[in-house]
Amino acid sequence: MSRRFTYYSNEASTPAGLWTFISRTSVAGSNGGTTSSINTSTANLLVAEVASYYPSGEPTLTDSKGNTWTLLTRHYDTGLISSNRMYYCINPTVGSGHTFTLSGASTFSNMNVMAFNNTTTPTYYAENGSADIGNQNFIQTGAVTNNLANALFVCGFSGLNTGVPPITLDSGFTQVDSFYNGGLYIAGTGGYKIVSSIVTLNPKFTWSNQTYVSTSIAVFQ
Amino acid sequence: MEIKLKDTDKTSLQSEHEIIYDKFSKSKQTQKEKDILISDFNDLLLKYSVKVKTEFIEYTPIITQ
User: Which of A9, A80, A108, B61 could disulfide-link to A53, CB 3.0 to 4.6 Å?
Assistant: First the structure.
């Protein structure tokens, strides 16, 4: 069974500026953990995709600059195994030595944090997500469309460790770190794509013999 | 409403996970041992997901929030 939802914000958009990827980092662990530090000095958008084990409750995301994060929809499979949620922070406090901490006992979680710069103030535009419990080899996030050129798409994936690595991501996304270590955390990965025109994207995560998977995707302009 | 394990179940989950993981972290693992670890870990996650579902008599229909 697969469920897909699309949400669009009502925010009026100003002309979108140009996007630049700045840096990224990640962490994984039974109880979360803290990432290695990155320099976010020129970033004005931070996005994190968080994969976690649903029954243990959701891990908490904090960072060394004390930023406040906005949470998008938590997508999870009906077997209540994996969940994936996107977090973001516009105009965050930034700097060198920036670390990110995921906290939560037995959440078996992992996270990819990505920092971006936009030449204007970034805005959140839309999100989507999906989940599936069946044995198959891929899952798509559900389609999302930007309404201004120069948009940023970020997506994430979570799943039970039944698949055979690697997890791959299509549609021209740059894939970030992947986690497969059954024994410590659920599987997860993510990616981002910067576009210069209006497009509809529905990226596909492919993983042999995947079960109990969930995804999320968000668009910023 | 978020559905999650009771604190006592979460403690049990932690203990059972530690037992599984300790078994394999003490020595260099062969691929076969790693596969067993992954299988045991997956079984543990499945077991507690069933628990969280059955222990809540009333829970929200499965929707994303």
Answer: A108
CA distances from A113 to A211, A212, A220 (A): 24, 23, 15
* Contact with chain B for residue A24, Cβ under 8 A: no
Residue A131 has pLDDT above 50, yes or no: yes
- Quick: pLDDT tens for A43-61: 999 999 999 999 999 999 9
ipTM of the complex: 0.85
Is A27 at the interface with chain B, CB within 8 A?
no
Q: Show which of residues 9-48 on chain B sit within 8 Å of chain A, judged by CB atoms.
A: 10, 13-14, 17, 20-21, 24, 34, 37-42, 45-46, 48
Across A51-64, b (16+ Cβ under 10 Å) vs e yields bbbbbbbbbebebb
Cis, bond preceding A92 (omega within 30 deg of 0): no
Provide the terminal-to-terminal Cα distance of chain B, rounded to the nearest Å. Answer: 9
Average pLDDT over residues A141-157: 97
pTM exceeds 0.95, yes or no: no
